[in-house]
Amino acid sequence: MEEPVIILTTYDHLTGNKVGWDSEGNMYVYDPLEINGLGSLGKWQLAKGIKKVVKKVGDTIGKGVRFVNRNINPATILIRNGWLVAMKVNLFNVAKLLRWAYTDYATAKAKTGMSQDHYNKIKKTAHDLEIIYWQVGEREG
After folding, report:
1. Sign of the dihedral defined by the CA atoms of residues 31, 34, 38, 42, in that order
2. I need a labelling partner for 92 at 20 to 30 A (CA). Which of 34, 38, 56, 134 fits?
3. What DSSP string runs through 4-43?
């Protein structure tokens, strides 16, 4: 494997490493172990840590948004409480139907005689509602 042709280099003051970019725009981090002769990792390696950092930042932002929705935003609080009340009083028999989504098909068919298509539709609806409930700030579980 041939080494990349680095066209721009700079010093990263946060990590203390030398950073370079090749003509295709790929970022490389200079291996400090090679400077001292302590490692055989190669002179240049592709900066794979960037992907981890971006994912961690995205997860942290998502947690912050969910915290705001769960504890501060009055609209999402009303949505969650309204949904819980609707399930408790079995409004429009939604809770009665959704309970079969949490059993297997054989049990649901034996108790209600429902078809496989109807069971799959109820299962998909329950999954979609769980996602919406989680998006408005409720914890998974």
Report:
1. positive
2. 134
3. P-EEEEEE-TTT--EEEEETT--EEEE-HHHHTT---S-S
pLDDT at residue 72, rounded to an integer: 87
Strands 6-11 and 44-46, by their bridges, are unpaired
First to last CA, the chain: 48
Query: What confidence tens digit (pLDDT) does each residue in 17-71 have?
Result: 666 766 666 766 665 555 444 444 434 444 566 677 788 898 899 888 888 888 8
Cβ distance 55 to 63 under 8 Å? no
Distances (CA, A) of 97 to 5, 13, 60, 86: 64, 59, 36, 13
Per-residue pLDDT tens for 115-129? 999 999 999 999 999
Say if residues 70 and 76 touch (Cβ distance below 8 Å).
yes
**Tokens coding 53:** 């950092």
* Inter-axis angle of helices 116-135 and 105-112, nearest 10: 120
Instruction: Give every strand in the sheet of 27-30, ordered side by side.
Output: 6-11, 18-22, 27-30, 44-46
